[in-house]
Amino acid sequence: MKTDHHVILRVVAKPLIPIISLFALYVHFHGDYSPGGGFQAGVIIAVAVILYSLIFGITPAMRAVPPWFARSLSALGFIIFGAVGVWALMMGGNYLDYDALFNEEPGGHYGQHYGILFVELGVLFAVAGSMLSIFYAFAGRVTEIKDEDW
Amino acid sequence: MTGYEGADLAIALINVVLLGLLFVIGVAIARMRSLFAIVMLSGVYSLISATWFVALDAVDVAFTEAAVGAGISTALLLGAMLLTSRTAKPEPRAMRIVPLFAVIAVGCMLVYATIDLPAFGDPDSPANTYVGTAYLERTPEDIGVPNIVTAVLASYRGFDTLGETGVVFAAALSVILLLGFGERSLSASLRKKTDKKG
């Protein structure tokens, strides 16, 4: 009975969370054409999980997105960013020189386009993982957010 | 900037209203003691500044401000707020004078500094002449990406962005080092709770 008075909040928030995540993907993949990019998309994904944990409790959120996953995601993002630079080095260019990625003709934009996309993907992973890790570190120290605490 | 007659006046009016709201919220935050209300008002502050950035045509900055300032920092501050008491301690009246003087002095200096700034959207200002125009001219043939902010951020200034990603990663790492991983402290506090019950 103790969770019953939040039923409207739960019902409204539940369909919103996938839409928020979808919007984050749009923001990331459309970052070349409109405002936004990896950083904003990462924050939006983290917000979707945080909204879930605020409404359904921290324990179900940690079961859905485990803290070790958030930590690894943030490290993986940083590695992806660095690896794109190393990839350019391997192809004979300078570090993070996207023109060298695919050995294309001068004037081609594939390297720039995919380089930016991969780098922003790294930013997305790093930011989403870091924000979630920070939230888990804070929220893990209080058992549950009680109603009278608000 | 002027699409029709009076557009400048309308934009000026919107700026005044938004900045006035920001001022009122800032004063309210400074006078309040309830931490929950302060956290919520700071979210509102970020949202209104994001609206104001849109009015200034800085859409990317507005987006970031809305996502980071109004979204995640409000949630993180709520999480941090629950670790402490619900209201701030009231400080003695004499202690309030010094911050007031500091704020007024810094405000006067900032207003004095704005006198030298170029007008908003001035085509001859340093921001709009050297590197800015070079990026605007060269992005279509160098990068081929319509959003020049993304081109500058990820390609021209890729090293800066790499450093920023490292900073975000380091921030998460330091919070984890200070507060713990989260799941271990959560299970510890859950165990304490069941111990108390049983």
Automatic annotation (TrEMBL), chain B:
Q: Which InterPro entries match?
A: CPA3_Na-H_Antiporter_A (IPR050616), MrpA_C/MbhD (IPR025383), MrpA_C/MbhE (IPR046806)
Q: Where does the protein end up? A: Cell membrane
Domain MrpA C-terminal/MbhD spans what residues?
A: 21-83
**Where does the sequence pass through the membrane?**
6-28, 35-54, 66-85, 97-115, 165-182
Q: How the protein sits in the membrane?
A: Multi-pass membrane protein
Provide the primary localization: membrane
* MrpA C-terminal/MbhE domain: residues covered: 124-179
- Record's keyword terms, sorted: Cell membrane, Membrane, Transmembrane, Transmembrane helix, Transport
Indicate what this protein is called per its UniProt record.
Cation:proton antiporter
Origin species = Henriciella pelagia
